[in-house]
Amino acid sequence: MTERVSIRDVAAAAEVSIGTVSRVLNGSGYASQAVRQRVQQAIARLGYEPDFTARHLRTGHSRTIGYLLPNIANPFLAIHLAEVEKLAQGAGYSLFIGSSERPARDKELVAFFENRRLEGIIASPSHEYEDPKSSPFGTTSLPTVIVDRDLGPGFDSVLVDHCQGMRKVMEYLLALGHRRVALFASGPRLRPGREKLRGYRTALEEAGFAFDERLVHLSESWLESSREPMQRMLRLEAPPTAIIAVGTQLLSGAVHVVREAGMDIPRDMSVVGIGTLETLELMYPPVTALRYNFHQSASAAVQLILQRIEKVAPPHARTVVIQSDLILGASCGAV
Asked: How many whole angstroms separate alpha carbon 323 and alpha carbon 163?
């Protein structure tokens, strides 16, 4: 059996003291850039893995943050996770990732994070609780930051302004002469879907146009296709002339139906995608997009949780609101 590489082995390979290796690993104390580089190269060469249990016992700190999300396969959540992990690592912390799609699993994961002596939780749960204070996030002793969910005012939160973003898109399409706009978004069970619908309706009402629920499809799953709803909309006496859709199966299904009907984008149908340029880059013509700022959201979440962990945060809960950008492509035209 291969012997475990020790911190002493790393120190010998890097030609430094054990204390210096410890300072580099913990991100504490002084070590020159050259020394840090030698230590990191020795760690990589030897395949050293820190003994986190021993570190817990020695320092009382795991320097690990729990990240709870519904489904890591969702491209938007995966992008946000990658940004959070990069920023946390830069601050000397690791992430412990848990996936949950039901309240019972939320409870299990929070208990697991507590038992493993994690130092805080960043959570984007799949469920919004009727009484957030009695939820696992309201009863845990660990500092918690909620991402893009409505769990009430008692939590540090990072929220995307979906309502204002949708109003930007609608005002742009209305200015192009579109009055019949199809919306494909996440369901109203969670905050992002509710806020998108609110922005959509508000923009129509402020412009003096009627809301038609037949042009709205709110999905409970990002994997759900929009083909059948889009086909139904095209059969309406007054079909849509523009589409707004979250850039997953919802966007691709609607666009496929439009093209199968022999329609051209943007001549016959204008299209706006919601998400990131990475998730929309394969579409042609280049799509006009309401772009999420995942880096800003991740940066705010990491900053809030680290301030709680390091006990430099104010006693009251804080909310950071992230705006989205409307990026013009070639997928929209005048009616």
From this structure: 10
Task: Please give the backbone phi and psi of residue 61, each rounded to the nearest 5 degrees, phi first.
Answer: -130, 130
C-beta of residue 137 within 8 angstroms of C-beta of residue 144 = yes
Three-state secondary structure call for residue 146: strand
pLDDT digits (tens, 9 = 90+) for 183-235: 999 888 899 999 999 999 999 999 999 999 999 999 877 667 789 999 999 99
CA distance 102 to 116: 21
Alpha-carbon gap, residue 39 to 27, rounded angstroms:
12
Q: Is 30 exposed, middle or buried (0-12, 13-18, 19+ CB in 10 A)?
A: exposed
Indicate the residue type of 72.
I
Report the distance separating Cα 42 and Cα 226, nearest Å.
52
> By the 8 A CB rule, do 287 and 314 touch?
no
User: What secondary structure letter does DSSP report for 5?
Assistant: P
pTM of the model: 0.79
Can you name the residues that pair with 208 across neighbouring β-strands? Answer: none
Give dist(CA 148, CA 322) in Å, integer: 10
What are the backbone angles phi and psi of residue 288, rounded to the nearest 5°?
-70, 135
DSSP 8-state symbol, 262: T
Which helix (H) or strand (E) segment is 98 a member of?
A: strand 94-99
Q: What angle do helix axes 227-234 and 249-260 make, rounded to 10 degrees? A: 40
Residues 116, 118, 121, 123, CA torsion sign: negative
pLDDT tens digits along 81-113? 999 999 998 888 999 999 888 889 999 999 999
Distances (CA, A) of 281 to 227, 274, 288: 21, 12, 10
Residue with tokens 């795991």: 62
Phi, psi of 304 (to 5 degrees): -65, -45
Contact 79, 275 (CB under 8 A): no
- Bridge-based pairing of strands 64-69 and 120-123 is parallel
Contact 118, 96 (CB under 8 A): yes
Give CA–CA dist 87/95, Å, rounded.
10
